[in-house]
């Protein structure tokens, strides 16, 4: 009987214990694969998330919040700034390009972002639309590829937005106001009824303003895939603001040079409730926080690796104890010590390799199943079919653990005399 057939029969003879060992290895490997793919996706998404815009101007507050909302469409904006800030930035000779951004509304949970169409040509080099054409009039929109795919939007479709950055916010607010109005009526007051009227007018303003899909963006592999874009003046049109009341959320700035970026930050930072933030610095702070979380996950991974190694060791110790007499017979029939040693180490490697392959498949399958949810919620775009250099370390590490775990029981059987093995 060949060595491989003998090893396979021994593994199948102890199906339950072998299955538990395979599961321990597979779960550990799948967890590590998901961690590697997620961390790489966060790093790559962070690097290309803001394009050439090294500076962003917005309302005073958290720089990280400003950058995440502006470029990654995560969280709420820090507030609004005067429209005059845009003109002031464009007049500065240190500025190569500057674009105003307005936000604050959503369509079914996806942010509606007002920005000049020149933003796409500056950032993506004039990439063509997947279909349709760029917006030209107030109410026209172009839709990110992920939004179009998720909601089934096509060129020519119309829809109404909602206030806020979370789906259903208006409905919840309306329900709360309605409840407050009912309580006010019971108490004989009229203040809540007035508030409800204001809320209803705001809600009707959004419902009456209809957007039209003019085009659909190609897949950009950035957070812009999950946003709806329109003209800057959409918010002013929805709320009927006069020219004196018009404000913007942020200004995206592409400096002409690094020195120009420094001068711009000094000029705008801290004046009249306005701040200027280095985009790369804010993103680095987010990545540092992610790295700290990765260290914690790394500790948990190390524990999982240790437990998987122990599972392999226990499986082979049990196998060696069960097959002591069988090994003695093999030795008496003339099989060498090397044959006995190889039979146990091969069994450990076979179980480990099975768990390794299962874990790799499970990890990538999990990444495929989670990619839409992660991208929708956090803008993290996992590439489930990507093979990273870390994968080779996972493969070599798993096989090394399987081999080391099998050496102890194999060496014990190797050293014993065949008569001692048989008598035991």
Automatic annotation (TrEMBL):
Keywords: Cell membrane, Membrane, Transmembrane, Transmembrane helix. Residues 170-188 have a biased composition (Basic and acidic residues). It is a multi-pass membrane protein. It holds the Pfam family FtsX. The keyword Electron transport does not apply. Residues 170-202 are annotated as: Disordered. This is Putative hemin transport system permease protein HrtB.
